[in-house]
Design brief:
Chain lengths: 525, 383
């Protein structure tokens, strides 16, 4: 038994989401831990307190194991992209080529610097170790920035100019045109014709003749890097990853403090907290604001889904946050539908004729653009309850995150009035339990904020894979995958991720038992 | 080939060769480390366990770097040769899935094997070691189908003739070039792993005759098996990829004569055999001394593999996919959708090679200067 086309798309969307979420967990640690390790080594350098070095070494071990898991899940996400969604090879060959190759350079740098850091830690002066971990972090962040640029292009296809709005009139222009409109139209027509004829659209790019027929599509290979959406996304996503990673380390040391009661663990938490507090304030105020404005401008249906705007409405606060203008209407699906209805009887063939006068569009030419637009809007609108609830849950957890960190700061630092009040309120719990409870709130809310944020980003762009241009069915694999094969693959992936997380716990928590055996064998004792 | 096609062909070839050199080291050392760890536990032999741990350090510092070159291959393929990549992800779907699943198992178990050493029961740890080692062999188990298909497009040919894709997806497993290629690959990795271990224990400050002996007999055994696998693969090429066969033997009319390289490979192997015999006599099954020249065993084995892979991949020039005495050119698969930013690509290649240099310095530092002196590793459980 094999899955049929539509089922494969649904199943692979779930598998891809799972892969990305698991990768994101490891990615967050790769981004957050070096910040903490760097801060600990800085404290060690300045104070000479050996505890900071020991903490840094433990975290480095966990970071090493985590990096292996992050690298492998990242590799799989990229492999998965071409394997499960071979149509995306076209994206990699065009808009994604420069960001992805730059990401590879960053990734190679990350690996080399991490290995260098691990083998030299404790054997070179702390200042050199700080320098290496800072360089590692820069490459890790750059890797995140470049790979986010590819995802951002799929959310806001920068460089496609007015092409998406020619099909969907409610969409904006996506920057100066960097594409060859004729080639892009040929590609779209070929994809639609393949869907109509029950062939696999993603197989189109297997044919060298069709590739040559489509021809040069992208004129500016750097287009994806310079989109305002990509810049906002990079800052927002990388910061989110750092916050989650730092929160994990906070949770780990809070647990140690809770379990053992040793005050030395509070020393680490005191190093972590100020960094975390600053990031949690900057994230919504600066980067979140940039992201919100980018979504409002370039993903109008996503913004309407977030705001639950089935109909156009007015909300000065949201309008100010989204558009910088309190009097701006929150455009709802009703207005998108009105704009789409304005297309009347216009067909894809009409659009093709305007760009390629002598081109035969075949069955795709009969496609009524108004019908297509209204159908797609209906599909997008069906996600409104989820996207709206997920977004506002995210905001609520963000507030909880900020409050939890702020209370923890007042609890562990001496701040006039606040510390006294905080300690009095939390006194029934006792110091150990209070720190633990607050840390759990920080970890849980950070993870939820990021996870829900990503869900809003991805579900909000549906029904398209490339916003306003390409559907998942147009890029999915033509292979009729046996469900058991898919279950087995996902099972292996999940089990290995779980085993890897357990390994990180074992490394951080369990004592070494083979030391004596090794010493004996090495002739040390 | 125009400049862009040549650049894509050269970058892909370089990435494949770099990847395969390092992968040979990690597959071979992974196996030896897992077996040493297991026997160390079963025989209650601390020396064997320490050997396993030390050998595993070789793998640790190489593995992620080899992995990233695998990713580079994917991006170069998709970026420069999207048509070929699209065909591969369809026709060779299941073999690639096998490799992906193996990678999923391989990298976490490597990290687990390292970080849980001495922290979980020896039986569990040995089991992790064997899963780690065997998953390493399973990666070429899938990926070598790609090489088989570009050498003799058995399933791709069926797809082009219009055979049902469901049939094609199964037929790919019957490519006749595959069995000798896979066994040649596995045997090579085991042989290289053995010789690398022998050289590793000949390094000043790390000399250990018993461990070097273990590596030496391992390398020698599988090098002996290569005397069967190599000719078998070559004979298979004569039937299914005559152009590559002719190029290897430099017959008249060869499209790219690699006979000088093939001769060089044979010379390197002869040198390796001579050096193995000389070391064998001196090391006396671990009871003797490790001669200084044993340091050359690993590099010679790697040189033979590098030349062999170049012959296998570059020997098809100017074609990318072979079809009997001809083939399909890179231009048939080249990215026509975008103008390649050539200056940027050169910049990226230079950056990658700078990192290769830094990586080699790191490996030297890790294995030769610092990493070896920390036996046993410092306990870090008190933090």
């Amino acid at each position: 038994m094999a899955l049929v086309a539509g089922d494969i798309t649904s199943a692979l969307l779930s598998v891809s989401s799972l892969g990305i979420y698991i990768h994101a967990m490891f990615l967050s640690i790769s981004l957050g831990f070096p910040v903490v390790i760097g801060a600990l080594l800085f404290k060690y350098w300045k104070s000479g307190d050996g505890d900071y070095l020991k903490f840094a070494k433990t975290m480095t071990g966990v970071l090493g194991l985590n990096f292996a898991l992050g690298a492998i899940t990242g590799t799989l996400v990229e492999f998965g992209l071409v394997q499960a969604w071979p149509g995306s090879i076209f994206v990699i060959a065009t808009f994604g080529f420069v960001p992805m190759t730059l990401e590879l350079v960053a990734f190679v740098g990350e690996i080399v610097l991490l290995i260098w850091f691990i083998v030299s830690l404790g054997k070179v002066r702390p200042v050199y170790s700080v320098l290496v971990i800072v360089l590692y972090f820069i490459f890790a962040a750059a890797s995140g920035v470049f790979i986010t640029a590819v995802n951002s292009w799929m959310n806001a296809p920068w460089g496609t100019g007015s092409l998406p709005s020619a099909i969907y009139p409610f969409l904006p222009e996506y920057g100066p045109t960097a594409i060859d409109s004729q080639s892009m139209i040929k590609l779209k027509v070929a994809l639609v014709n393949a869907l109509f004829s029950s062939n696999s659209p993603s197989q189109l790019i297997q044919d060298p003749a069709i590739a040559k027929q489509i021809g040069l599509t992208l004129r500016d290979p750097l287009a994806a890097l310079f989109s305002p959406y990509a810049i906002a996304s990079a800052l927002h996503n990388v910061t989110a990853g750092i916050i989650v990673g730092i929160s994990f380390s906070l949770g780990g040391y809070a647990f140690k403090f809770f379990a053992k009661g040793d005050k030395k663990y509070l020393k680490v938490i005191r190093v972590i907290l100020p960094v975390l507090l600053v990031l949690i304030i900057v994230q919504p105020v600066v980067f979140g604001d940039m992201m919100g404005k980018a979504v409002a401008t370039y993903d109008p249906t996503k913004f309407a889904l977030i705001e639950g705007a089935a109909h156009t409405k007015y909300d000065p606060l949201i309008a100010f946050l989204g558009y910088g203008d309190p009097s701006h209407p929150i455009t709802g699906f009703s207005d998108f539908e009105n704009a789409t209805s304005g297309l009347g009887g216009k067909t894809l063939g009409d659009l093709v004729a305007a760009v390629l006068p002598n081109y035969t569009a075949g069955a795709a030419g009969e496609l009524n653009l108004m019908r297509l637009g209204l159908d797609d809007l209906a599909k997008a609108e069906s996600n409104m309850p989820f996207v709206n609830a997920a977004y506002y849950s995210k905001i609520a957890f963000g507030i909880l995150d900020l409050i939890s960190v702020a209370v923890l700061v007042t609890f562990l630092y001496r701040i006039p009035v606040l510390t006294k009040t905080g300690r009095r309120l939390l006194s029934p719990l006792g110091e150990r339990k209070a720190v633990m409870v607050l840390a759990v709130l920080v970890v849980a809310s950070s993870v939820l904020v990021s996870s829900l944020g990503w869900a809003v980003r991805e579900v909000g762009r549906k029904p398209w894979t490339v916003y306003g241009l390409i559907y998942p069915d147009e890029v999915v694999t033509p292979v009729a995958i046996n469900p058991m094969v898919m279950v087995a693959f996902v099972g292996v992936f999940v089990v290995m991720a779980a085993v890897g997380v357990y390994g990180m716990y074992v490394f951080a928590a369990k004592p070494l038992k083979f030391m004596e055996l090794l010493k004996k064998g090495a002739g040390v004792e | 080939m125009n400049d862009t096609e040549m650049l894509g062909f050269a970058i892909l070839g370089t990435a494949v060769i770099l990847h395969i050199i390092i992968v040979n080291i990690t597959i071979g050392t992974g196996w030896i480390s897992a077996v040493a760890r297991f026997l160390g536990w079963k025989k209650n032999d601390a020396n064997l366990e320490i050997m396993g741990r030390k050998v595993f350090k070789i793998l640790i510092v190489h593995e992620l770097f080899s992995g990233v070159w695998g990713t580079i291959i994917t991006v170069v393929l998709a970026g420069f040769f999207p048509t070929l990549t699209a065909i591969a992800t369809d026709v060779i779907f299941y073999p690639i899935l096998i490799s992906l699943s193996s990678i999923i198992i391989r990298i976490p178990t490597i990290a687990l094997f390292w970080y849980t050493w001495g922290k979980v029961r020896p039986g569990i740890h040995s089991a992790i070691g064997f899963v780690m080692a065997l998953s390493g062999f399973a990666i070429p188990l899938g990926f070598r189908y790609i090489f088989s298909e570009i050498t003799y497009p058995y399933a791709v040919g069926m797809a082009l003739e219009g055979t049902s894709r469901d049939v094609v997806h199964t037929a790919v497993f019957s490519n006749p070039v595959y069995p000798p290629l896979l066994l040649h690959t596995w045997t090579g990795a085991l042989s290289i792993g053995g010789f690398i271990v022998a050289s590793f224990f000949a390094i000043k400050g790390n000399i250990n005759a018993r461990s070097a002996w273990t590596g030496l007999w391992h390398g020698a055994l599988f090098l002996g098996l290569q005397a069967v696998m190599g000719p078998w693969y070559l004979l298979t090429l004569s039937s299914y990829a005559p152009l590559l066969f002719d190029n290897v033997l430099g017959v008249t009319g060869a499209s790219f004569n690699v006979l000088p390289l093939f001769t060089l490979k044979m010379a390197v192997i002869t040198g390796l055999v001579v050096l193995t015999a000389a070391t064998w006599r001196r090391v006396k099954k671990g009871a003797g001394l490790v001669p200084r020249y044993a340091l050359l065993l690993g590099p010679l084995a790697m040189a033979a593999a590098t030349i062999g892979e170049f012959i296998n991949d570059g020997g098809r020039y100017p074609y990318m996919v072979l079809l009997g005495q001809g083939g399909l050119l890179p231009s048939d698969f080249m990215n026509v959708y975008t103008g390649m930013p050539i200056d940027l690509v050169y910049g990226i290649v230079i950056a990658l090679f700078l990192f290769v240099g830094l990586f080699m310095a790191t490996v030297y530092y890790a294995l030769n200067k610092r990493f070896l002196v920390d036996v046993p590793s410092e306990p870090m459980n008190d933090a």
